[in-house]
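This part of the workshop introduces the protein records we will be handling. An example says more than a description, so a record of this kind follows.
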Amino acid sequence: MEILTPNEPPCWNDNQLISEHREKLPRVIQNILSTMDDETCFAHIGDEPIHFSTSVKAMVDKFREVLFPGYFSREKLDAANLGYCMGQNVSQLHDILSEQITHVLRHDCLRYGQACTECEIRGQEVALRVIESVPDLRRVLADDVRGAYDGDPAAKSHDEVIFSYPGLFAITVYRIAHILHDLGVPQLPRIMSEHAHSVTGIDIHPGACIGKRFVIDHGTGIVIGETSIIGDNVRVYQNVTIGALSLPPGAGELLKGKKRHPTIEDDVIIYSGATILGGETIIGKRSVIGGNVWITESIPSDTKVFIETPRLVYRYKERDDEYSI
């Protein structure tokens, strides 16, 4: 045990120093408050609070329980309790979802002075419409699971894909968020997508249109922009960007609602590191886009695009010579 010598400051001196630092906080706080009058800065004061990511996470978790029964439940499901548990989960999901939708509707209504849309009633209606889509959504996600399993020799089972593949998690959240986006719900779809992005490293805008059996292999670093259109049976590997060309100043207003991102037709494979840009760019059916290519023009169907093998240079530290292959 360490013993303090008489020359070492006792604990009360530390407390005094801490208090002296805390006494400076009111001045710092006042300086921060003074920026509230600066119109060039942003503040969200006096408006409905924006919902937190924790509540969105709870909603996504509840969706997964309903979409994949028994996989993410806290208790075993069988014939004896399936109806009860599903009824309880769907009821809870409806309440969480309707509350979230009402919240974002009311937020925009009050903050931006919009005409009243009966936020709570609309929240209930939209939540019900989303939950009514669950049977179809389950079928679409089942195709996504099979697509991932069929194309990945490393996948040992469909269960492994559902439990552990980040690509399927991102696709699941995207497909829910896309329904909310199409129903005109503000903010919430994008916040859901950003939650999936933070968990998986996969960034899919909820406005993108993605077909059946969409497979994301590995996934980290994938970006799919808002106006992208992706057909059926498309497979995408890590670090792929399906994005917009460089944008001019003021593009935020000039290009809203216009197609800025590529169209990927059916049965296309896009390998890691590929970048495909532009709203007029179309990748034709059954084409294969090799790794690390940069594409800003349309590619016909049944085309392979790849980079020639680069020349490797070997230079030896202890010798003057070098050779390349």
The radius of gyration is 26 Å. The mean pLDDT is 88.
